[in-house]
Design brief:
The complex is a heterodimer. By secondary structure, chain A is mostly beta strands. Chain A has no helices and eleven strands. The chains are: A mainly beta, B mainly beta.
Amino acid sequence: NAGVMQNPRHLVRRRGQEARLRCSPMKGHSHVYWYRQLPEEGLKFMVYLQKENIIDESGMPKERFSAEFPKEGPSILRIQQVVRGDSAAYFCASSPETAIYGYTFGSGTRLTVV
Amino acid sequence: LAKTTQPISMDSYEGQEVNITCSHNNIATNDYITWYQQFPSQGPRFIIQGYKTKVTNEVASLFIPADRKSSTLSLPRVSLSDTAVYYCLVGEGAGNNRKLIWGLGTSLAVNP
């Protein structure tokens, strides 16, 4: 009964490269959420997805960031042409259709841009 | 969206009861109060959620006074493994948790 699985745990990219972060939701969960946590800051909501649909992307930067949750496979958060300011911990969470008891978070991917 | 205020840090000793109070003066009628726990290098973990009065589960209790302008998370008999950051969040309904505003939380240190 695995929880939310994120990989990789650590990702190092040079400025200008692309970063791909993967998230497999908890079994039985159909809703996925991505958050970003900058050093010394709280979590900030980025995007909410259901299978093949983006429901709410109000927290996503307008450029370079995209997310998907295909019919098959994990959810992907993609950051193109990374910059140093993208260095952060990116957390994925999932929930069943009705998130009465909060979300289940993964352990995060720590992105470092050098 | 309601803003919350909680202490930046707290110290305690093993076996003590720890109470972390959160202020949310502009809480709205539809808002719920949710607490999460986060260990270093891990994602947050849901602890408890409530709307009014008192909620208790196997991990903690949540006390909410009648005016709902504050809430207190109570951890009974803490152990070293309870050392973590605790976040108080306030937001509309249980189904809109993604809109919750995360602050810096309270860093709890449990000492032997």
